[in-house]
Amino acid sequence: MLLVLSTAVIGPPGFDGLAPYAGRCVALATCHGKERVLARPFRRALNLTVVVATGCETDRFGTFSGERPRPSHARETCRRKAEAGLAHTGLDLGLASEGSFGPHPAFPWLAAGVEWLTFIDRRADLVIEERLIAPRTNFDQRLVAPADDIGAWLGQVGFPSHALIARPHRTDGIGTPGSDPLIKGIRDPGQLALALRSCAEASPAGLVRLETDMRAHCNPTRLRAIRTLAFRLVRRIASPCPACGAPGWGLMDRLAGLPCGWCGGPTEGHRVEVRGCVACGHRLEAPRADGRRWADPGDCTRCNP
Ligand SMILES: [Zn+2]
Ligand SMILES: [Zn+2]
Q: Are strands 126-134 and 111-121 parallel, antiparallel or unpaired?
């Protein structure tokens, strides 16, 4: 009879708690040069090699410029992209990134980007994801005529280090699909002048819709956000579950109810952080990691109605 007395964490077969994926390759589905910021964190933290799934067309999951609508939420899209990279390469580890841009969830007058990064381990049937709300984004759009002075706006959106997209303005919607010019990746003033002219000619009102090009290779601010997220994801992948040893232990949820510093009543601020495992469902609740125990009375609906 064999008696197991050890209480050491023993993970699912094949997992080394410290380096669960050392020496393996992970397929990255991207057309937009994201390997530039993803390869290094994965190599350094996990000894994992990022392999670009060449020829894997990620635009079929939708494009920022709207020629193809996004079929689903960014999180779901990200997961589908990672799965497409797996299918394309035949590898059993996959990685994908997906961003969406719009009003900030808490401060709707500001623009924010939400970035997702998803890692799939098909052999162990694990999906490990991280999300980042990037408050620094140049996401914006503007209606202009070719003669307008848009110098200040161009500075604000980071042109020319950050590229632009131009298309004719139409009051009747998007015009005839495929017939209007849609000029992406505009990166120099000469190119911009030409794009303004041709799009204004195609617009009944002589106006051009200019917008920031949010594709990663056209947007250094976005690439930086993806790099920050990559460091978070590799840290999470390298964190074994205290119950089963599977990789991917980390923050799952935040519970609201941080007490107000004046009246002690619950506020919308988060009080508890829930960490969890993506494999066995083990969960642990703990006070917030930043040590904050009281909410600002300004955020309390009783003290500051
Ligand atoms: Zn209060
Ligand atoms: Zn677990």
A: antiparallel
Quote the pLDDT of residue 130.
96
What's the whole-model pTM score?
0.83
Alpha-carbon gap, residue 104 to 247, rounded angstroms: 31
Tell me which residue range forms the domain holding 126: 17-136+219-238
* 108 alpha carbon – ligand 1 mean position (Å): 24
- Ligand lying nearest the CA atom of residue 295: 1
- Taking the CA of 282 as reference, the closest ligand is 2
Asked if residue 6 belongs to a domain, the reply is no
Domain count within the chain: 3
CA 284–ligand 2 middle distance (angstroms): 11
Backbone φ and ψ for 28, nearest 5 degrees, come out as: -110, 120
Q: What is the distance between the alpha carbons of residues 205 and 203, in angstroms, rounded to a whole number? A: 5
Are residues 118 and 226 located together in one domain of the fold? yes
Residues with CB under 5 A from ligand 2 (ion): 241, 243-244, 246, 277, 279-280, 282
**Can you tell me the mean pLDDT for 278-292?**
94
Q: Which ligand sits closest to the CA of 128?
A: 2
